[in-house]
């Protein structure tokens, strides 16, 4: 049994996953796993997609790499825009970050996304694509939607996750 939980932090690109994970990792000691980086470093992909400027992820290779990293033993913050490929048995909490369209537009423009990629991500956020995926893949009670428009929200979200973590540990030590 895990003595530390695994938490997925997911959402549309630009929603604030890295920002949240870094702060949660700093305050709780959970390990930040940036999946994009793992895909690149461990070559869990089938090449580069020029149109999207991103790796074509090979999910089997990725899951193998993560299993080698002992994710199932717990203590990880899984930072990625997709969440539904991880086995349910690995995951204790799924945080889906949400953001207002105009704020997301500004953040992605700053990242110099192409018009097409920008529009697709805005559509995805408006249509709640990642929230639906999370709800389909995991039990309702472990999926939590949090907003990430402001720095104050980062602070309150992180505080909330810290309390959840304390409770999770209490529940397991009796
Ligand atoms: N809640 C927030 N309030 C203000 N700025 C934020 C917030 N979340 C993220 N940002 C800013 O938005 C940009 C994208 O955040 P990032 O954490 O890299 O998103 P993601 O990892 O989801 O792609 C960064 O410049 C970050 O500082």
UniProtKB/TrEMBL annotation:
Q: What catalytic activity does the UniProt entry give for this protein?
A: ATP + H2O = ADP + phosphate + H(+); AMP + ATP = 2 ADP
In terms of superkingdom, the source organism counts as Eukaryota
Give the transmembrane region(s): none
Key word Cytoplasm present in the record?
yes
Q: Where is this region: NMPbind?
A: 34-57
Binding annotation for ATP:
14, 16-19, 111
What Gene3D superfamilies does the annotation carry?
Answer: P-loop containing nucleotide triphosphate hydrolases
Q: What EC number(s) would the UniProt record show?
A: 2.7.4.3
Q: Which UniProt keywords apply?
A: ATP-binding, Cytoplasm, Kinase, Nucleotide-binding, Nucleus, Ribosome biogenesis, rRNA processing, Transferase
The record's annotation in Pfam families points to: AAA_18 (PF13238)
Q: Where in the cell does this protein reside?
A: Cytoplasm; Nucleus
Q: Name one GO cellular component term.
A: nucleus
Per UniProt, the enzyme's principal EC class comes to: transferase
Q: Where is this region: LID?
A: 110-120
Q: Its Gene Ontology molecular function terms?
A: AMP kinase activity; ATP binding; ATP hydrolysis activity
Q: Which GO terms describe its biological process?
A: ribosomal small subunit biogenesis; rRNA processing
The cross-references to SUPFAM superfamilies, in alphabetical order and at most eight, read: P-loop containing nucleoside triphosphate hydrolases
Q: Name the family.
A: Belongs to the adenylate kinase family. AK6 subfamily.
| Role played | Broad-specificity nucleoside monophosphate (NMP) kinase that catalyzes the reversible transfer of the terminal phosphate group between nucleoside triphosphates and monophosphates. Has also ATPase activity. Involved in the late cytoplasmic maturation steps of the 40S ribosomal particles, specifically 18S rRNA maturation. While NMP activity is not required for ribosome maturation, ATPase activity is. Associates transiently with small ribosomal subunit protein uS11. ATP hydrolysis breaks the interaction with uS11.
Subunit (UniProt): Interacts with small ribosomal subunit protein uS11. Not a structural component of 43S pre-ribosomes, but transiently interacts with them by binding to uS11.
**Under which name does UniProt file this protein?**
Adenylate kinase isoenzyme 6 homolog
Q: Which organism is it from?
A: Sodiomyces alkalinus (strain CBS 110278 / VKM F-3762 / F11)
